[in-house]
Design goal:
Elements (H helix, E strand, L loop, with lengths): L1 H13 L6 H97 L22 H13 L3 H14 L6 H14 L3 H14 L4 H16 L3 H14 L4 H12 L3
Helix pairs in contact: 1-2, 2-3, 2-9, 3-4, 3-5, 4-5, 5-6, 6-7, 7-8, 8-9
Amino acid sequence: MRLRTIAPAAALLLGGCLASKQDVFLLQNQLTTMQRAATRADSARGAQITEVLAQIVQANDSVRGLSARLAKLQSTVATDNYEMGRQILQIQELSGQSQRRLQELRASLEERSQLATAPVPLPAPGDTSRPAPVPGGPGPAQLFQSSLDQLRRGSARVARGGFEELLRNYPNSEDAPEAMIYIAETYASERNQVAADSVYGLVVQRYPQSPKAATALYKHALSLRAAGRTAAARAAFDRVVRNYPRSDEATLAREQLRTTGR
């Protein structure tokens, strides 16, 4: 565009120096105007470039800020999940301690009741010693407590026999579901996981409304996961969440579903 504007004037000057001073002045004005316009355009483009660069820097800062907040959020969620799981385990442990204490009290009450109602044998003629009461067979709480004591001592087979006696004599006892879980654990301690899983399944089948059914199903799912049967383990964890949504095991199962691969 500059060449087109300058060409006529240059031709006029070269053509014999016929241009007047006024023509030269006009040419100078045109050149000055063009230079100013070019300077303004360059300045505007520079300002636009500066603004775009500032926007890019601001966007990068925003992305870095979002990334930092996301990383912090992920860390917080992971910490919260860990803390929640730890608290649930603590609650279960405290609950287990309370249940064991109640079990001991029930066993003691059963024993006292049996002693109080047992027939007192008549002394033999001339025998001045005090007769001892003859108690009847142990009740479910006594069987459960004595079997649990054997299990704690490491006598898995003896403990299993006691729990099995409880199930034979008192199949509808409130201790029956938990007794079956301990039977499964005795098998697991002997590395007989097939038998253990079978008993866990019986707990769910026979006592589906018992809180121990959720425990048995969750333990079964953990066993499947340990055996590398990931799909079956996820299905079992899902059953815990679906069938026993308000149980502590359901909370733990949800976490297992989040971390166990598909």
